[in-house]
Write a structure and sequence with these properties.
GO molecular function: ATP binding; ATP hydrolysis activity
Mean pLDDT: 94
Number of strands: 10
CATH class of one domain: Alpha Beta
Shape: globular
CATH architecture of one domain: 3-Layer(aba) Sandwich
Pfam families: ABC_tran
Helix content: 25-40%
Keywords: ATP-binding, Nucleotide-binding, Transport
Low-confidence stretches: none
Number of helices: 8
Distance between the termini: 28 Å
Organism: Spirosoma rhododendri
Bound molecules: adenosine-5'-triphosphate
Protein name: ABC transporter ATP-binding protein
Strand content: 15-25%
């Protein structure tokens, strides 16, 4: 479970807060999609949960532990997928996964590594090819497989489907739905209103550091969500 309590971040004393008193809870099995224009504070929110940033005030909690006070313990519950996953181009997908899994403390057999790549949607014929020849969507799938390795209780995603084609994006949504059904709490920053509606259980709309709307996704059509978004930002 993931919780923000009056979470605030001001990058400079004379600047307005990039995030202002955010209150948010993402329970196991929920997918909370954060929408908002460029600069609204979505990445700042994710970076506070990751412990990459210290809050100016308020708290980011993961499974009841404050990230600022328990940076190592909270990271054990987390997996993170950024917009662009940084991997080694000369290694294959399989070798990249093996390397990052071992960095995270997991020793997996080739069969286990392959089944994680398949679960992430990467076709078997690509597993042994150098990653330098992969498309963005294929690299993103290796990133997903790395995140799956940790069997994390909380998944943080920052525009993970940006640049993916509709089929890859759809497969990604299906995977998120499966993970949430297994009890993972998911927070995803995105610009994709349609996917948010498809995959999200809750939709939050941010404007200038404030979470101005929180909506249950089931109550809305994608068109209604788009109309609310356009009125809000
Ligand atoms: N390291 C930083 N130093 C100073 N200001 C920053 C820093 N990072 C972000 N900001 C500012 O904080 C505000 C929120 O930025 P943030 O990256 O969280 O927005 P975002 O909603 O993720 O935007 P995008 O959709 O473009 O990714 C912006 O005004 C941005 O300029």
């Amino acid at each position: 479970m993931l919780q923000a309590i009056n979470l605030t971040k001001q990058y400079a004393p004379d600047a307005p807060p990039a995030l202002d008193s955010l209150n948010l809870t993402v329970a196991p099995g929920e997918i909370f999609c954060l929408l908002g224009q460029n600069g609204a504070g979505k990445t700042t929110t994710i970076n506070l949960f990751l412990g990459f940033l210290q809050p100016t005030s308020g708290q980011a909690l993961i499974n009841g532990l404050t990230v600022a006070e328990h940076p190592q313990e909270t990271k054990k519950f987390l997996a993170y997928l950024p917009e662009t996953v940084l991997l080694y181009p000369n290694l294959s997908g399989l070798e990249n996964l093996d390397f990052f899994a071992s960095l995270a403390g997991f020793t997996l057999s080739t069969d286990e590594l392959r089944s994680l790549l398949v679960r992430a949607g990467l076709q078997a014929e690509a597993h042994k090819r150098p990653l330098g020849g992969y498309s963005k969507g294929m690299r993103q799938k290796v990133g997903i497989a790395i995140a799956l390795t940790k069997q994390a209780k909380v998944l943080l995603l920052d525009e993970p489907t940006s640049g993916l084609d509709p089929k890859a994006s759809n497969e990604f949504s299906e995977l998120l739905t499966q993970l949430s059904a297994d009890g993972t709490a998911i927070l995803m920053a995105t610009h994709d209103i349609f996917r948010s509606k498809e995959v999200g259980t809750h939709i939050g709309i941010m404007r200038a550091g404030h979470l101005v709307e929180t909506l249950p996704a089931a109550d809305l059509t994608a068109n209604e969500l788009e109309a609310i978004y356009l009125q809000t930002v």
